[in-house]
Write a structure and sequence with these properties.
The chain has about 160 residues and is mostly helical. The protein is about 70% helix and about 0% strand. It has 2 domains: about 70 residues, no CATH class; about 70 residues.
Length: about 160
């Protein structure tokens, strides 16, 4: 009887993942260094202003890891995509924007995400030769059509 009781206690504590010990709070505090999402976001913005884009992206990702449901996490997703676009990492930016649009189809920043996705797609298709050799009237417009097709706003409701 005692061995069954001990086994049940062991299994319950194992299955609970030691959450009754409060270890989750310590882990969250270590990731966010005890800072609020607003403070983390301000630090990321300061890094962007200083030109430290990679560090700013890391800071935005720290917001996503520490406070995934905050309004700062939503904005951080857009900011990550925009800063990837500024670094000419177009494929990663489009992936970020696609994930954002899929996850948040009906919130106020979503139309901007569609717009930014179109801008990134257009920039991705540009080359140095387009500016030097190609006449704008002779330029292949397929990339412009692709960028325009990214603008599908069906079902998007702007929240106020």
């Amino acid at each position: 009887m005692n061995s069954r009781f001990a086994l049940i206690i062991f299994l319950l504590s194992f299955l609970s993942g030691c959450s009754f010990l409060g270890l989750d709070k310590d882990t969250k505090k270590l990731v966010a260094d005890g800072l609020s999402p607003k403070e983390l976001y301000q630090q990321a913005e300061d890094k962007v202003e200083s030109g430290l884009i990679e560090q700013a992206i890391d800071q935005y990702e720290q917001i996503l890891a520490s406070y995934p449901n905050s309004k700062y996490a939503v904005q951080a997703r857009i900011d990550i995509a925009y800063n990837l676009y500024k670094q000419k990492k177009y494929n990663r930016a489009i992936i970020q924007l696609d994930d954002f649009i899929e996850k948040f189809p009906n919130i106020a920043p979503t139309p901007y995400a569609y717009y930014l996705r179109g801008v990134v797609a257009e920039s991705k298709s540009n080359s140095i030769l387009d500016q030097i050799v190609t006449d704008n009237a002779q330029r292949d417009v397929e990339s412009v059509k692709d960028a325009y097709n990214y603008r599908d706003f069906s079902g998007v409701q702007i929240l106020k």
